[in-house]
Amino acid sequence: MQTTLQFLIMVDGPLTAAELLDLIRTRLPDAVPYRRDSVDVRGNLLEINPNEAADPRLAATDEDDYLYFRWRVELTPMDRAVDEGHQIALARELLRAIEGPQTRATVCAAFEDRV
């Protein structure tokens, strides 16, 4: 497993962690519950954590707004078969699953320019 295959999705919006996890599980039905605020999805452990630097004002106005989003959705490969192409496809699908009228999401990864 390479650490460069880990990635984050920074999420901002009115969702609670439980609502965000439900949204992901609904739109990616192959996600298997792991423990509170986490699932096993396509060879990755997906965990939702609050962003310690969250700031609604900066999330709305700063050039690097994503740094101040409410949630950190962290994906860590658990399966050795996971490669970069797999992670890029998963990141794209997660963005589609999460983004909505009131929810913004940004991928932070070594491969983010290819998502």
The Cα radius of gyration reads 13 Å
Strand fraction equals 25-35%
The arrangement of helices and strands along the chain is: EHEEEHEHE
Q: So what's the overall shape?
A: globular
Kindly describe this structure.
It is globular, with a radius of gyration of 13 Å. The chain has one domain (3-114): Alpha-Beta Plaits (2-Layer Sandwich). The chain contains 3 helices and 6 strands, in the order E-H-E-E-E-H-E-H-E. Strands 2-3-4-5-1-6 form a 6-stranded antiparallel sheet, covered by helices on one side. By secondary structure, the protein is α+β, with helices and mostly antiparallel strands. The chain starts with 6 loop residues before the first strand and ends in a 7-residue tail after the last strand. Helix content is 28%, strand content 29%. It has helices at 17-27, 56-61, 84-98; strands at residues 7-12, 32-35, 38-41, 44-50, 71-77, 104-108.
Topology:
Blueprint: E1 7-12, H1 17-27, E2 32-35, E3 38-41, E4 44-50, H2 56-61, E5 71-77, H3 84-98, E6 104-108
Antiparallel strand pairs: 1-5, 1-6, 2-3, 3-4, 4-5
